[in-house]
Design a protein that fits this description.
The complex is a heterodimer of chains A (119) and B (112).
Chain A: E1 4-7, E2 10-13, E3 19-25, E4 32-38, E5 45-51, E6 57-58, E7 67-73, E8 76-81, E9 90-97, E10 108-110, E11 114-118
Parallel strand pairs in A: 2-11
Antiparallel strand pairs in A: 1-3, 3-8, 4-5, 4-9, 5-6, 7-8, 9-10, 9-11
Chain B: E1 9-13, E2 18-23, E3 33-38, E4 45-50, E5 53-56, E6 61-64, E7 70-75, E8 84-89, E9 106-111
Parallel strand pairs in B: 1-9
Antiparallel strand pairs in B: 2-7, 3-4, 3-8, 5-6, 6-7, 8-9
Classes of the chains: A mainly beta (119), B mainly beta (112).
Chain lengths: 119, 112
């Protein structure tokens, strides 16, 4: 299947600093990417939908000024956690819908995830 | 979006067949049913997708009754490495911008 590469896999940062997470679709073009956050023993929570060349759409309760999303090309979306605090520590996962590649055009491919720890 | 309901957890032993059922009462006519597997600290991995009756691949089988209001993921002869969370999703079938919303998932614990 299609591959979504997410980098870094884990990062530790100091409180108040910013962290950027990259998500790349390696062998297909992803006009739309999704960003999720997952806390321990919980399900994935959708944070925002990232569309190439336009502003991201954030879910209710997600601060757009804190979680900056950029989708500058058809193969790259980035999530920047600004002024990170310990409560932002979580597992962040990106996903891309591969329209036209899946058996029913509905298959989504996920990155490996990024473990963010803010100290 | 079709809401899905599945058991929070299940226990099994190595070598057994495991069946995880998911309810999706308000599934739309064009919706497909997709199952993902997630190991700790990894992104979800696609397992299988189906529309009706039965679908089988090298990993699992998916059984979907005629009314499509539920589906059952069948894992044959599970091993310890099948311990994971399994998510049942019914994503919209058109438009890449439609959201993929995860439910609680089923934590499958396989014991020796």
């Amino acid at each position: 299947g299609a591959v979504v590469s997410q980098h870094p896999s884990r990062v530790i940062c100091k409180s108040g600093t910013s962290v950027k997470i990259e998500c790349r679709s390696l062998d297909f073009q992803a006009t739309t990417m999704f960003w999720y956050r997952q806390f321990p023993k919980q399900s994935l929570m959708l944070m925002a939908t990232s569309n190439e060349g336009s502003k991201a759409t954030y879910e209710q309760g997600v601060e757009k000024d804190k979680f900056l999303i950029n989708h500058a090309s058809l193969t790259l979306s980035t999530l920047t956690v600004t002024s990170a605090h310990p409560e932002d520590s979580s597992f962040y996962i990106c996903s891309a819908r591969a329209v036209g590649l899946g058996s029913a055009d509905t298959e989504a491919f996920f990155g490996q995830g990024t473990r963010l720890t803010v100290v | 979006l079709a809401k899905t309901t599945q058991p929070i957890s299940m226990d099994s032993y190595e070598g057994q067949e495991v069946n995880i059922t998911c309810s999706h009462n308000n599934i739309a006519t064009n919706d497909y049913i997709t199952w993902y597997q997630q190991f700790p600290s990894q992104g979800p991995r696609f397992i299988i997708q189906g529309y009706k009756t039965k679908v089988t691949n090298e990993v699992a089988s998916l059984f979907i009754p005629a009314d499509r209001k539920s589906s059952t993921l069948s894992l044959p002869r599970v091993s310890l490495s099948d311990t994971a969370v399994y998510y049942c999703l019914v994503p919209p079938t058109w438009g890449a911008t439609n959201k993929l919303i995860f439910g609680t998932g089923t934590l499958l614990a396989v014991q020796p």
